[in-house]
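I hope you will forgive my troubling you with a question about protein structure. You will find the record immediately after this paragraph.
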Amino acid sequence: MGINPGPATGTHVFDNQEIYELIMEHTRDLVRVIDVDFNFAYVSPSHETVLGYSVDDMLHSSGLNILHPDDKDKAIAMHRHMISQDSTMDGLFRFQRKTGEWITLETRGRSLVKDGKIIGVVTVGRDVTERLRMEQQLKDYQEQLKFMAFHDPLTGLPNRALFFETASQVVAEANRHGDQVAVLFVDCDDLKQINDAYGHDVGDNAIRELGKGLAAVVEDQGIVARVGGDEFTVLLPHLGDAQDVLAIVDSLGRSSHAVRDANGDPIHLTVSVGVAVYPSDGIDSKTLVQKADRALYAAKQQGKNRCVFVGSLS
């Protein structure tokens, strides 16, 4: 025996116009019709909620009036394309709210065709300002994490991991082209005395300033990394000869003279340097750093404030 559901209750048959008006009244998307001259022929009520302009404010005005100057050329090109051929196009555009602030709309445009003729463009825009802001925050955070993973927090210089990664690539490239590469191990002389005399804050500042000075000397000739408390490594690709290294070492030593305390007074700080050269002293980055460290130890033993090449060691 079937079940008779009885008469339907609470129902109403809407015609297409009523449905259209309900959708336009309640949507937060910005629906607009733009004529061939880039003037608004129709804008949905949502424009007042999102942009602050009433429908009367916007009707028959140019869409370019509230468009960001940097986005106008792109918008004009997109509009011209859609009124020249039946097509659909997407883009991100910045619009100025009545309060003066800018928001970004993710916009899809479609040619409006009537009786076989393109009479304008219909666009639907959605406010994605907050989404883009959050995406940028996430990207910035990821970049910050990446930077922290490969850079020293005190000096901002590359850390040990990034140095060895770069050195391995440089040595491999030098092997292919028959180049020489120098690895310098640089160590502050008597940093403990500076810490004891001035405090660790001044000692940390000395490390920062020394790192800045070393980076300024090397510039685009190579990279400087902080690999320990007062230890730095320098990578010099495309090495010509020992005189090139000595010239840079001399500049590195002079850069240490620019270190100052918290009052701006100069601090007497010197550095010792050990140098290993690829391929004569080693054929991989790990060996080169180890041998440069050994040469550095010899420089310390010989009285500090000097440079020793691995090749000079017996």
